[in-house]
């Protein structure tokens, strides 16, 4: 009897737990839409778009150098992990006139990883403010048009986030100054949205083969 109990604990329970969590991801693993149909980025002479991409969207502001640490955190903890996916990209909004600083930052990031899917788009101050307002988040841009928060935007330009985050409740963005938040929260949520699209693709392929 004792041996049977030990076998159940060692082999059966882990299998049941795996099946439970696997079914949970399939049935309940959709990342909530918090803002529908945000505008496309205010691209100025650059072919940058949110359409058809899973985008990590950020606002670096006029003091690009002061946001380097945030960019490196995002690059190391999120971009390097998911940058291999065809439909994944990082887009940073920067005020016009800061193109040289953005190019220099991208060059530095390029020493650590392939940065083909890191994009910078440039806009006037009022244009950036108006664009950020359309995200309808519970945070504001700083005076220099920056924010430490990065946002997950799906292929249909919907802002995804958390409705019941254990710390914040309604969570629109992820603090790129916190490695722990990127590791423990943003990474999980990017996994969820990627899995959501993979499952949808598999279902579409299965339906076509019928």
Automatic annotation (TrEMBL):
<protein>
    <recommendedName>
        <fullName>Membrane or secreted protein</fullName>
    </recommendedName>
</protein>
<dbReference type="InterPro" id="IPR036249">
    <property type="entry name" value="Thioredoxin-like_sf"/>
</dbReference>
């Amino acid at each position: 009897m004792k041996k049977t109990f030990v076998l159940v604990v060692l082999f059966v329970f882990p299998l049941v737990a795996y099946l439970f969590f696997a079914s949970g991801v399939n049935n309940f693993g959709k990342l909530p839409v918090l803002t529908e149909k945000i505008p496309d980025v205010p691209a100025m002479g650059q072919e940058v778009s949110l359409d058809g991409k899973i985008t990590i969207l950020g606002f670096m502001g006029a003091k690009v150098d002061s946001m380097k640490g945030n960019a490196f955190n995002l690059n190391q903890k999120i971009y390097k992990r998911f940058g291999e996916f065809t439909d994944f990209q990082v887009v940073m909004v920067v005020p016009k006139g800061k193109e040289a600083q953005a190019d220099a930052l991208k060059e530095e990031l390029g020493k650590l990883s392939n940065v083909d899917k890191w994009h910078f788009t440039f806009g006037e101050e009022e244009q950036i403010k108006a664009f950020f307002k359309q995200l309808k988040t519970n945070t504001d841009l700083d005076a220099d048009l920056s924010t430490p928060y990065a946002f997950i935007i799906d292929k249909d330009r919907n802002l995804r986030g958390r409705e019941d985050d254990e710390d914040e409740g309604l969570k629109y963005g992820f603090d790129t100054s916190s490695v722990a938040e990127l590791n423990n929260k943003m990474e999980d949520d990017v996994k969820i949205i990627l899995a959501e699209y993979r499952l949808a693709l598999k279902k579409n392929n299965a339906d076509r083969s019928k």
